[in-house]
Task: structure prediction
Amino acid sequence: MDTVDDWLDATTPSARGIAPIAPTSDRVGTKTPVTRQFDRMIETQRLPTLPEDHRHRTGPGSRLMLSDLRHEVKQTADCYRATVDRYRDLAEQAVRGSIINLNGATQLVGPFVDMIRMDPALSLLAIDLKSDRDEYLFAHGLNAALLSMTVAHSMGYQQRHDVVDVGVGALFQDIGMLRVPAEIRLAPRSITSDERMVIEQHPINSMDILERSSALSQTALLVAYQAHERNDRSGYPRRRQERSIHPLARVVNVADTYAALTCPRPHRPAISPYQAVKTLLHAASDGQLDRNVVRAFLNCVCLFPIGSYVELSDGLIARVLRNNGSAHTRPVVVPLNADGSETDIELDLKKLASIQVVRALDDHPRHDPPAGPDTGGSA
Result:
């Protein structure tokens, strides 16, 4: 098959990936006023659907020149670090019981909306997947927010408030994890079934923290509440199925999964961006993740994700700079010099039929192991 689109369209959900149907209200018993309101709404009203034209929004969008993009990436990286620090301060105040001014929440993600409109590659190149364990919760929240906003924008959510809502929901989805005891949250081992139930309580904790402020929109709150639900009812806290999960929460679920897989945790190492994308594809084929969202994610991020490194068929090592829409295996790349620095040359593999990616690298080539088997065409 020529593209991931073909693969997604051809496969059908595997029975082994479908969780047994279970009551939606008993997975986690605790409720808050907002979660009661949302649960009643979900059971009695029809949620919004994805934009009708989302399958067709695969074009490159705005693109900066390489020199301008590099300059803006540096500015975006500074904004990223400042936002992580600000988010940590807000979250820690909230967990201590302070009634914080969450009007600042939109200010946290707002600048990144402008960056995505300037050039969608900006936010993806600024993501930090190597934060230490003390920073993980806050950096992960921002990573999930940037990915979610980029994907939502590409799917047809053009109104600023929609993009902000998905970003705020993604950013605050895990704030309730700060109420989970550190010996569970940071356990350097597999957790027990009882400990998992404690973790599955954290969306309720998040709502308890966030509902004290009227500054967050109902959509952002609902997205944060449902960010860990799965289409096949294997998610939490309410084991909802696809039609009962807000479409923007489905976007966050895909982005959150990718961001989590590619960042090391105390109980497991990170996997490469390429392997993480393959995991998303399998989860979509098994019915866990929304296929249309995974398709849109691939249209934005590429099979060989933006910011990662690849080996080309002509022997060059390159960094992936941009996606190429539905041409998932043929991104725009920047070759590296012998010392590992980047050249000033962009290669659009969609226009260069003689060159293709033959291998995804786990890290910058200065740290990558010797060449192994060809993986470029295996997904």
Summary: Residues 359 and 376 are 5 Å apart (CA to CA). Residues 12-28, 367-379 have pLDDT under 50 and may be disordered. The beta strands are 309-312, 317-322, 332-335, 347-348, 357-361. The first strand starts at residue 309 and ends at 312.
